[in-house]
Amino acid sequence: MIGLLDKAGIAALIPHAVPMCLLDAVLAWDMTSIACVASSHRSAGNPLAANDRLDAVCGVEYASQAMAVHAGLIGNGRRSISGYLASLRDVICSVERLDMLDGDLLVTAELLIAQGTNAIYRFELTCNAKPALSGRAAVVIYAGHSE
Fold first, then answer.
1. I need a surface site. Which of 1, 14, 83, 134 has the fewest CB within 10 A?
2. What is the pLDDT of residues 89-143, one digit of tens each?
3. pTM (2 decimals)?
4. Where are any strands of DSSP class E within the chain?
5. Structural contact between residues 79 and 85, judged by C-beta atoms closer than 8 angstroms
6. Three-class SS state of 42
7. Strand order from edge to edge, sheet including 130-143
8. Alpha helices (H) in the chain, listed in sequence order
9. What angle do CA 130, 133, 134 make, to 5 degrees?
10. Domain assignments of the chain as residue spans, ordered by start
11. Which residues on neighbouring strands pair with residue 106, listed in sequence order?
């Protein structure tokens, strides 16, 4: 299953609205993976920026949103009404700041294990095919019905 989804479609699947909806589009997805693109890391109004900078660790939120979108897509379009990161493992920041990257972010997530509302994903953010952030996340995602 490969599909495209724009920012409005993404916002319909996650509990965030613009400007906190950080992803621009879903490029591809299937039952175990998702690939999204984002340009909001270059925005002066990025809601995660502090002191005029967006540290690389903020990329975890980009990955979290990709995971929530993925959960919604594989859950037949059910909106994630809430969720949280239970743990992060093996996180590697390959850059210091996301706002200094001149290209779009490619945000990918791969579902490794799913059991009920619990899941483990491997995630990666790249820019111009160079790594920016990667790791694994244990997440709990509660889904409701699409609005």
1. 1
2. 999 999 999 999 999 999 999 999 999 889 999 999 999 999 999 999 999 977 6
3. 0.92
4. 5-6, 25-29, 33-38, 80-93, 105-115, 118-127, 130-143
5. no
6. helix
7. 5-6, 25-29, 33-38, 105-115, 118-127, 130-143, 80-93
8. 7-11, 59-74
9. 105
10. 5-143
11. 37, 126
**CB neighbours of 6 closer than 8 A, spacing ≥ 6?**
24, 25
Tokens of 2: 């490969």
In this predicted model, what pLDDT tens digit does every residue of 29-64 receive, in sequence order?
Answer: 999 999 999 999 999 899 999 999 999 999 999 999
Name the residue type at position 67. M
Q: Which residues contact 74 (CB under 8 A, 6 or more apart)?
A: 31, 111
Q: Is 98 exposed, middle or buried (0-12, 13-18, 19+ CB in 10 A)?
A: buried
The token pair that represents 96 in the structure block: 């210091």
